Model the fold of this input.
Amino acid sequence: MSNAIPAEPRASQAATRRQLLSAAAGVFAERGFRDATVREICRKAGANVAAISYHFGDKEALYSAVLRETAPPPAGGPNAPGNAADATLSAEERFARYIRNFLFQIAEDGPDCLHSRIMAREMIEPTRALDHLVNDFIRPQHQWFQGLIREITGPGFTVEEIRLIANSAISQVLFYKHCGTVIERLHGSALLTPARLEMLADHITAFSLAAIQTLALQRGPVQRTARPNRALRPSTPSRTRLTR
Amino acid sequence: MSNAIPAEPRASQAATRRQLLSAAAGVFAERGFRDATVREICRKAGANVAAISYHFGDKEALYSAVLRETAPPPAGGPNAPGNAADATLSAEERFARYIRNFLFQIAEDGPDCLHSRIMAREMIEPTRALDHLVNDFIRPQHQWFQGLIREITGPGFTVEEIRLIANSAISQVLFYKHCGTVIERLHGSALLTPARLEMLADHITAFSLAAIQTLALQRGPVQRTARPNRALRPSTPSRTRLTR
DNA sequence: GAATGTGTCAAACACGTGTTTTAATCCGAA
DNA sequence: TTCGGATTAAAACACGTGTTTGACACATTC
Done:
């Protein structure tokens, strides 16, 4: 037993482990933890089923490793969702970007979307990893989003009311991910095309901003202090493309 | 072999079959088709596992029978969702009732809610029964709801736009059903209490009506022909309890 | 070149699932 | 009472799942 740490224990060691992680991320995102089979993961990774036990311990430990590996970098604090934190933009424009980012993250199938897709899966089919995901990702993002909404509403809303509004906006995005099958049956066309995603993001933004601004108006227009004209003007971000 | 048709083949025959249907409805609604086990169903029905094969054929046929048995009666046409079709009410009030009925139907656990709960399950975990459910229940209800929304918006919206608005409203309701676990983790309190359901229904109604009326206002207030004052007034159904 | 430890593989294992088998039981009809 | 079909029950079956086993190949080290 040499005291020297084997920095690179084996060339192939890291290779199989990496391919296992990559294949597992895709299968977990596509099927969820429960319906993902170790045999499919290993087949796509070109490895033997025993490799999971050898490199990770068991299926659940592999799942945890996938969550750890695919986790997005902090990128200036845990609460910065993509490019929606640009301080030079108005709150409404940041809202539009957040919705669009969120929708594309969970609907597209690029390698950057794996973590978001797995989280969307966890919401409807929780595993023991849910607590960790809530604390490290979902709650910070939700808090950040609630702060953004309060910028638009102005004061006069309780934290509970702000939370309900945030849920109303987010639920529209998740709906197209979770209920995609039934929506496609309902009006018989593919949902995931980029063009349709753009349209969906525009609608959800327009619908939600219209609701938020009207609720703020009803609650008390005079309480609005910061940049009141911008918030009260019923802007139509669904018509004027903000992003891209 | 007697030619006389055995109108009541056996007293216990119908009994086991009925108890099997009842138990299966509860288990299917609670766990979904996939996670429901025939052994749990039979244990709750006080029957042997072979009874499913004997009385129905297999698990899937039992599921179909449950859907058939728990289906709500037409009740004046297939598109009348509960008491939300009362023609004496304004469109906004019928909207509020529809949202409230929908939310309670999928969140509560009474025997009348089984079919709705199973349908909510089908949306995120479809089975081969989905096509039938879409054609017979989901699509008619969705069409009815879109007609209701068009009453509020007035003309000037395409069918696609109306459909998006309907989805935005429905998605908020389904969110609390499908993502209940993560929401409870997020702010650590039970979601399903009747008091909280009332509050959720009020919020979703207020949020959605605010959005719809504002979008209609932006689109073109002059196009509104029927009862314009009622639709344009930003009523606050979240404050004035409409139902109950 | 032999020894050692690491990584891999096919096969087997343990377990839960839906389904079927086979015999026993029930109950009305003759 | 006896017969015969209908119904039930326990056990076994077939299959897919995650996991483990034991042998094997390979590179490194002595």
